[in-house]
Protein backbone atom coordinates (compact mmCIF):
# COMPACT_ATOMS: atom_id res chain seq x y z
CA UNK A 1 0.00 0.00 0.00
CA UNK A 2 2.92 2.31 0.73
CA UNK A 3 4.24 2.04 -2.83
CA UNK A 4 0.76 2.37 -4.30
CA UNK A 5 0.03 5.62 -2.50
CA UNK A 6 3.47 7.06 -3.21
CA UNK A 7 3.37 6.01 -6.89
CA UNK A 8 -0.09 7.44 -7.39
CA UNK A 9 0.93 10.79 -5.95
CA UNK A 10 4.12 10.91 -8.06
CA UNK A 11 2.20 10.00 -11.20
CA UNK A 12 -0.44 12.62 -10.45
CA UNK A 13 2.04 15.47 -9.90
CA UNK A 14 4.23 14.52 -12.90
CA UNK A 15 1.21 14.10 -15.17
CA UNK A 16 -0.22 17.46 -14.16
CA UNK A 17 3.18 19.14 -14.60
CA UNK A 18 3.75 17.64 -18.06
CA UNK A 19 0.21 18.47 -19.12
CA UNK A 20 0.61 22.12 -18.11
CA UNK A 21 4.02 22.33 -19.81
CA UNK A 22 2.70 20.75 -23.00
CA UNK A 23 -0.23 23.12 -23.19
CA UNK A 24 2.04 26.11 -22.49
CA UNK A 25 4.63 25.10 -25.13
CA UNK A 26 2.02 24.32 -27.78
CA UNK A 27 0.30 27.63 -27.15
CA UNK A 28 3.64 29.45 -27.42
CA UNK A 29 4.70 27.69 -30.66
CA UNK A 30 1.33 28.18 -32.33
CA UNK A 31 1.25 31.83 -31.31
CA UNK A 32 4.80 32.51 -32.60
CA UNK A 33 4.19 30.66 -35.88
CA UNK A 34 0.93 32.50 -36.42
CA UNK A 35 2.45 35.93 -35.87
CA UNK A 36 5.48 35.16 -38.11
CA UNK A 37 3.17 33.99 -40.90
CA UNK A 38 1.01 37.06 -40.46
CA UNK A 39 4.12 39.26 -40.69
CA UNK A 40 5.17 37.59 -43.96
CA UNK A 41 1.72 38.09 -45.45
CA UNK A 42 1.57 41.74 -44.47
CA UNK A 43 5.11 42.52 -45.60
CA UNK A 44 4.52 41.18 -49.13
CA UNK A 45 7.81 40.59 -50.96
CA UNK A 46 10.50 39.77 -48.40
CA UNK A 47 14.21 39.35 -49.14
CA UNK A 48 15.47 35.76 -49.01
CA UNK A 49 17.78 36.56 -46.10
CA UNK A 50 14.77 37.66 -44.02
CA UNK A 51 12.98 34.40 -44.90
CA UNK A 52 16.06 32.41 -43.87
CA UNK A 53 16.24 34.46 -40.66
CA UNK A 54 12.61 33.67 -39.98
CA UNK A 55 13.25 29.97 -40.62
CA UNK A 56 16.25 29.89 -38.28
CA UNK A 57 14.32 31.85 -35.65
CA UNK A 58 11.48 29.33 -35.71
CA UNK A 59 13.95 26.43 -35.48
CA UNK A 60 15.72 28.12 -32.57
CA UNK A 61 12.43 28.67 -30.80
CA UNK A 62 11.41 25.06 -31.46
CA UNK A 63 14.71 23.69 -30.13
CA UNK A 64 14.56 26.01 -27.11
CA UNK A 65 11.01 24.93 -26.44
CA UNK A 66 11.95 21.25 -26.80
CA UNK A 67 14.90 21.51 -24.41
CA UNK A 68 12.85 23.56 -21.99
CA UNK A 69 10.15 20.90 -22.15
CA UNK A 70 12.65 18.06 -21.51
CA UNK A 71 14.29 19.89 -18.60
CA UNK A 72 10.88 20.81 -17.21
CA UNK A 73 9.76 17.17 -17.36
CA UNK A 74 12.78 16.08 -15.29
CA UNK A 75 12.15 18.98 -12.93
CA UNK A 76 8.49 17.98 -12.64
CA UNK A 77 9.51 14.39 -11.85
CA UNK A 78 11.99 15.58 -9.21
CA UNK A 79 9.49 17.95 -7.60
CA UNK A 80 6.73 15.34 -7.88
CA UNK A 81 8.88 12.81 -6.02
CA UNK A 82 9.69 15.31 -3.27
CA UNK A 83 6.14 16.62 -2.84
CA UNK A 84 4.62 13.13 -2.99
CA UNK A 85 7.07 11.96 -0.34
CA UNK A 86 6.20 14.88 1.93
CA UNK A 87 2.48 14.23 1.59
CA UNK A 88 2.60 10.44 1.76
CA UNK A 89 5.10 10.14 4.62
CA UNK A 90 2.75 11.19 7.46
CA UNK A 91 -0.13 9.24 5.92
CA UNK A 92 2.01 6.12 5.64
CA UNK A 93 3.24 6.63 9.20
CA UNK A 94 -0.36 6.89 10.41
CA UNK A 95 -1.27 3.75 8.50
CA UNK A 96 1.65 1.83 10.01
CA UNK A 97 0.82 3.15 13.49
CA UNK A 98 -2.83 2.17 13.07
CA UNK A 99 -1.69 -1.32 12.04
CA UNK A 100 0.44 -1.58 15.20
CA UNK A 101 -2.53 -0.39 17.27
CA UNK A 102 -4.66 -3.10 15.65
CA UNK A 103 -2.12 -5.64 16.87
CA UNK A 104 -2.35 -4.30 20.42
CA UNK A 105 0.55 -1.83 20.62
CA UNK A 106 -1.41 0.97 22.30
CA UNK A 107 1.71 2.90 23.38
CA UNK A 108 2.40 3.99 19.78
CA UNK A 109 2.23 7.75 19.20
CA UNK A 110 2.41 9.60 15.88
CA UNK A 111 4.80 12.55 15.55
CA UNK A 112 4.15 15.19 12.88
CA UNK A 113 5.92 18.44 12.01
CA UNK A 114 2.95 20.04 10.30
CA UNK A 115 0.27 22.44 11.50
CA UNK A 116 -2.63 21.40 9.32
CA UNK A 117 -5.36 18.78 8.98
CA UNK A 118 -2.78 15.97 9.00
CA UNK A 119 -1.60 17.13 12.42
CA UNK A 120 -5.22 17.15 13.63
CA UNK A 121 -5.67 13.62 12.31
CA UNK A 122 -2.48 12.48 14.06
CA UNK A 123 -3.66 14.07 17.33
CA UNK A 124 -7.01 12.29 17.02
CA UNK A 125 -5.29 8.95 16.44
CA UNK A 126 -2.99 9.55 19.41
CA UNK A 127 -5.99 10.36 21.61
CA UNK A 128 -7.76 7.25 20.35
CA UNK A 129 -4.70 5.12 21.14
CA UNK A 130 -4.50 6.57 24.66
CA UNK A 131 -8.17 5.83 25.31
CA UNK A 132 -7.86 2.32 23.89
CA UNK A 133 -4.80 1.75 26.06
CA UNK A 134 -6.83 2.69 29.13
CA UNK A 135 -9.76 0.50 28.08
CA UNK A 136 -7.44 -2.40 27.30
CA UNK A 137 -5.94 -2.10 30.76
CA UNK A 138 -9.40 -2.18 32.33
CA UNK A 139 -10.53 -5.04 30.10
CA UNK A 140 -7.45 -7.12 30.85
CA UNK A 141 -8.27 -6.99 34.57
CA UNK A 142 -11.96 -7.81 34.08
CA UNK A 143 -11.54 -11.60 34.02
CA UNK A 144 -9.13 -11.44 36.93
CA UNK A 145 -11.57 -9.35 38.97
CA UNK A 146 -14.52 -11.61 38.19
CA UNK A 147 -12.44 -14.65 39.15
CA UNK A 148 -11.39 -12.92 42.36
CA UNK A 149 -14.97 -12.00 43.24
CA UNK A 150 -16.14 -15.58 42.68
CA UNK A 151 -13.12 -17.39 44.07
CA UNK A 152 -13.18 -15.96 47.60
CA UNK A 153 -16.76 -16.87 48.58
CA UNK A 154 -16.55 -20.21 46.77
CA UNK A 155 -13.31 -21.06 48.55
CA UNK A 156 -14.88 -20.12 51.88
CA UNK A 157 -17.94 -22.24 51.17
CA UNK A 158 -15.81 -25.18 50.09
CA UNK A 159 -13.64 -25.06 53.20
CA UNK A 160 -16.70 -24.82 55.46
CA UNK A 161 -18.47 -27.69 53.73
CA UNK A 162 -15.31 -29.81 53.81
CA UNK A 163 -14.89 -29.12 57.52
CA UNK A 164 -18.51 -30.07 58.18
CA UNK A 165 -18.17 -33.24 56.10
CA UNK A 166 -14.95 -34.33 57.83
CA UNK A 167 -16.38 -33.64 61.26
CA UNK A 168 -13.75 -31.01 62.04
CA UNK A 169 -16.42 -28.36 62.64
CA UNK A 170 -19.85 -28.60 64.10
CA UNK A 171 -22.47 -26.90 61.86
CA UNK A 172 -23.28 -24.19 64.39
CA UNK A 173 -25.72 -21.38 63.53
CA UNK A 174 -22.83 -18.89 63.38
CA UNK A 175 -20.88 -20.98 60.85
CA UNK A 176 -23.98 -21.69 58.79
CA UNK A 177 -24.73 -17.95 58.74
CA UNK A 178 -21.18 -17.31 57.52
CA UNK A 179 -21.89 -19.62 54.57
CA UNK A 180 -25.18 -17.83 54.01
CA UNK A 181 -23.36 -14.47 53.80
CA UNK A 182 -21.03 -15.81 51.12
CA UNK A 183 -24.00 -17.12 49.11
CA UNK A 184 -25.70 -13.72 49.41
CA UNK A 185 -22.52 -12.02 48.20
CA UNK A 186 -22.47 -14.27 45.12
CA UNK A 187 -26.16 -13.61 44.44
CA UNK A 188 -25.62 -9.84 44.69
CA UNK A 189 -22.63 -9.99 42.34
CA UNK A 190 -24.59 -11.94 39.73
CA UNK A 191 -27.56 -9.57 40.11
CA UNK A 192 -25.31 -6.53 39.58
CA UNK A 193 -23.77 -8.10 36.48
CA UNK A 194 -27.26 -8.80 35.14
CA UNK A 195 -28.20 -5.15 35.71
CA UNK A 196 -25.15 -3.96 33.77
CA UNK A 197 -25.90 -6.33 30.90
CA UNK A 198 -29.51 -5.16 30.89
CA UNK A 199 -28.41 -1.53 30.59
CA UNK A 200 -26.10 -2.38 27.69
CA UNK A 201 -28.98 -4.04 25.86
CA UNK A 202 -30.76 -2.13 23.03
CA UNK A 203 -34.07 -3.06 24.69
CA UNK A 204 -33.20 -1.11 27.85
CA UNK A 205 -35.57 1.81 28.46
CA UNK A 206 -36.70 4.11 31.26
CA UNK A 207 -40.20 4.73 32.60
CA UNK A 208 -39.87 8.52 32.76
CA UNK A 209 -42.33 10.51 34.86
CA UNK A 210 -42.33 13.86 36.63
CA UNK A 211 -41.10 13.24 40.17
CA UNK A 212 -40.25 15.44 43.14
CA UNK A 213 -36.51 15.03 43.60
CA UNK A 214 -36.57 15.60 47.37
CA UNK A 215 -39.00 12.71 47.81
CA UNK A 216 -36.73 10.35 45.86
CA UNK A 217 -33.75 11.36 47.99
CA UNK A 218 -35.68 10.97 51.26
CA UNK A 219 -36.84 7.51 50.17
CA UNK A 220 -33.24 6.44 49.49
CA UNK A 221 -32.28 7.71 52.96
CA UNK A 222 -35.06 5.60 54.49
CA UNK A 223 -33.78 2.50 52.68
CA UNK A 224 -30.19 3.09 53.82
CA UNK A 225 -31.07 4.49 57.25
CA UNK A 226 -30.62 1.26 59.22
CA UNK A 227 -27.15 0.65 57.75
CA UNK A 228 -26.05 4.17 58.69
CA UNK A 229 -27.39 3.77 62.23
CA UNK A 230 -25.66 0.41 62.61
CA UNK A 231 -22.29 1.89 61.60
CA UNK A 232 -22.96 5.07 63.60
CA UNK A 233 -22.52 7.36 60.59
CA UNK A 234 -24.60 10.54 60.53
CA UNK A 235 -26.69 10.97 57.36
CA UNK A 236 -27.89 14.53 56.64
CA UNK A 237 -29.98 16.07 53.88
CA UNK A 238 -29.96 19.82 53.28
CA UNK A 239 -33.14 20.14 51.30
CA UNK A 240 -33.49 22.97 48.83
CA UNK A 241 -36.63 24.11 47.03
CA UNK A 242 -38.83 21.35 45.73
CA UNK A 243 -37.53 20.56 42.23
CA UNK A 244 -39.43 18.42 39.73
CA UNK A 245 -37.39 16.18 37.45
CA UNK A 246 -38.39 13.84 34.64
CA UNK A 247 -36.94 10.52 35.83
CA UNK A 248 -37.59 6.84 36.27
CA UNK A 249 -38.29 6.83 40.01
CA UNK A 250 -37.10 3.26 40.65
CA UNK A 251 -33.91 3.73 38.62
CA UNK A 252 -33.06 7.06 40.24
CA UNK A 253 -33.73 5.52 43.65
CA UNK A 254 -31.27 2.79 42.68
CA UNK A 255 -28.67 5.44 41.79
CA UNK A 256 -29.04 7.23 45.12
CA UNK A 257 -28.91 3.98 47.11
CA UNK A 258 -25.72 2.92 45.31
CA UNK A 259 -24.09 6.33 45.89
CA UNK A 260 -25.06 6.33 49.58
CA UNK A 261 -23.88 2.74 49.97
CA UNK A 262 -20.53 3.68 48.43
CA UNK A 263 -20.21 6.69 50.75
CA UNK A 264 -21.04 4.53 53.77
CA UNK A 265 -18.38 1.96 52.83
CA UNK A 266 -15.59 4.54 52.98
CA UNK A 267 -16.80 6.60 55.94
CA UNK A 268 -15.48 5.52 59.35
CA UNK A 269 -17.63 5.12 62.45
CA UNK A 270 -18.54 8.53 63.82
CA UNK A 271 -18.26 10.17 60.41
CA UNK A 272 -20.96 11.84 58.35
CA UNK A 273 -22.51 11.83 54.88
CA UNK A 274 -24.30 14.96 53.66
CA UNK A 275 -26.67 15.28 50.69
CA UNK A 276 -27.31 18.70 49.15
CA UNK A 277 -29.35 19.78 46.13
CA UNK A 278 -28.59 22.90 44.06
CA UNK A 279 -30.59 24.51 41.27
CA UNK A 280 -28.49 25.40 38.18
CA UNK A 281 -30.76 27.21 35.70
CA UNK A 282 -32.16 24.33 33.62
CA UNK A 283 -30.39 21.63 35.65
CA UNK A 284 -30.29 20.33 39.19
CA UNK A 285 -27.09 19.16 40.89
CA UNK A 286 -27.07 16.57 43.67
CA UNK A 287 -23.98 16.49 45.87
CA UNK A 288 -23.20 13.57 48.19
CA UNK A 289 -20.22 14.37 50.41
CA UNK A 290 -18.67 12.00 52.96
CA UNK A 291 -15.99 12.41 55.60
CA UNK A 292 -14.24 9.20 54.64
CA UNK A 293 -10.78 8.34 53.36
CA UNK A 294 -11.23 10.20 50.07
CA UNK A 295 -10.27 9.09 46.59
CA UNK A 296 -6.81 9.37 45.06
CA UNK A 297 -6.42 11.52 41.95
CA UNK A 298 -5.56 8.43 39.91
CA UNK A 299 -8.65 6.54 41.09
CA UNK A 300 -10.96 9.49 40.28
CA UNK A 301 -10.52 8.74 36.57
CA UNK A 302 -11.76 5.17 36.84
CA UNK A 303 -14.15 4.79 39.80
CA UNK A 304 -17.14 4.61 37.44
CA UNK A 305 -15.62 1.70 35.50
CA UNK A 306 -17.02 -1.72 36.30
CA UNK A 307 -14.95 -3.76 38.79
CA UNK A 308 -12.60 -0.84 39.41
CA UNK A 309 -11.61 -0.34 43.04
CA UNK A 310 -8.77 1.66 44.53
CA UNK A 311 -6.01 -0.15 46.40
CA UNK A 312 -7.40 1.03 49.72
CA UNK A 313 -10.68 -0.75 49.01
CA UNK A 314 -9.44 -4.19 48.10
CA UNK A 315 -10.80 -5.60 51.34
CA UNK A 316 -13.96 -7.51 50.49
CA UNK A 317 -15.74 -6.41 53.64
CA UNK A 318 -15.56 -2.73 52.76
CA UNK A 319 -14.66 -2.48 49.11
CA UNK A 320 -17.74 -3.96 47.46
CA UNK A 321 -17.62 -5.52 44.02
CA UNK A 322 -16.79 -2.32 42.14
CA UNK A 323 -20.01 -2.47 40.11
CA UNK A 324 -22.32 -0.06 41.97
CA UNK A 325 -20.90 3.19 40.58
CA UNK A 326 -20.71 1.70 37.08
CA UNK A 327 -24.47 1.07 37.33
CA UNK A 328 -24.96 4.65 38.54
CA UNK A 329 -23.15 6.07 35.53
CA UNK A 330 -25.19 3.97 33.11
CA UNK A 331 -28.46 5.10 34.66
CA UNK A 332 -27.54 8.78 35.00
CA UNK A 333 -26.36 8.95 31.37
CA UNK A 334 -29.61 7.25 30.32
CA UNK A 335 -31.42 10.18 32.00
CA UNK A 336 -29.34 12.63 29.89
CA UNK A 337 -27.40 13.54 33.01
CA UNK A 338 -23.82 13.58 34.24
CA UNK A 339 -22.08 11.98 37.20
CA UNK A 340 -18.56 12.70 38.42
CA UNK A 341 -16.46 12.70 41.57
CA UNK A 342 -13.98 14.94 43.35
CA UNK A 343 -11.99 14.45 46.51
CA UNK A 344 -10.81 17.02 49.05
CA UNK A 345 -11.61 16.14 52.65
CA UNK A 346 -13.45 12.92 51.97
CA UNK A 347 -15.13 12.28 48.63
CA UNK A 348 -17.88 14.11 46.75
CA UNK A 349 -20.13 12.48 44.17
CA UNK A 350 -22.04 14.88 41.91
CA UNK A 351 -25.10 14.09 39.80
CA UNK A 352 -26.50 16.64 37.35
CA UNK A 353 -29.96 16.11 35.85
CA UNK A 354 -32.15 18.26 33.59
CA UNK A 355 -35.08 19.93 35.36
CA UNK A 356 -38.55 19.07 34.09
CA UNK A 357 -40.20 21.94 32.22
From TrEMBL:
Residues 85-137 form the HAMP domain. InterPro entries: HAMP_dom (IPR003660), HATPase_C_sf (IPR036890), HATPase_dom (IPR003594), His_kinase_dom (IPR005467), HisK_dim/P_dom (IPR003661), HisK_dim/P_sf (IPR036097), HssS/ArlS-like (IPR050398), Sig_transdc_His_kin-like_C (IPR004358). GO terms for molecular function: ATP binding; phosphorelay sensor kinase activity. Its EC number is 2.7.13.3. Residues 145-357 form the Histidine kinase domain. Keywords: ATP-binding, Cell membrane, Kinase, Membrane, Nucleotide-binding, Phosphoprotein, Plasmid, Transferase, Transmembrane, Transmembrane helix, Two-component regulatory system. One of its GO terms (cellular component) is plasma membrane. This is histidine kinase. It comes from Paenibacillus bovis.
Amino acid sequence: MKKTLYTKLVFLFVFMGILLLTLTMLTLLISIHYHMSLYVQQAGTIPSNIIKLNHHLEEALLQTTLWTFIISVFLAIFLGLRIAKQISRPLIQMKESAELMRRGSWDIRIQTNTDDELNDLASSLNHLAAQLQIQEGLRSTLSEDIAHELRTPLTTLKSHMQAFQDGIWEPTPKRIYSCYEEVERLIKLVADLEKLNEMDSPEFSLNLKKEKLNEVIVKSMEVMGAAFVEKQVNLKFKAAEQIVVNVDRDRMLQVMINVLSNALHYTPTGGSVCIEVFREKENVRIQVQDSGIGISEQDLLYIFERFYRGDQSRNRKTGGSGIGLAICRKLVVAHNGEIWATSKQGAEIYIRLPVSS
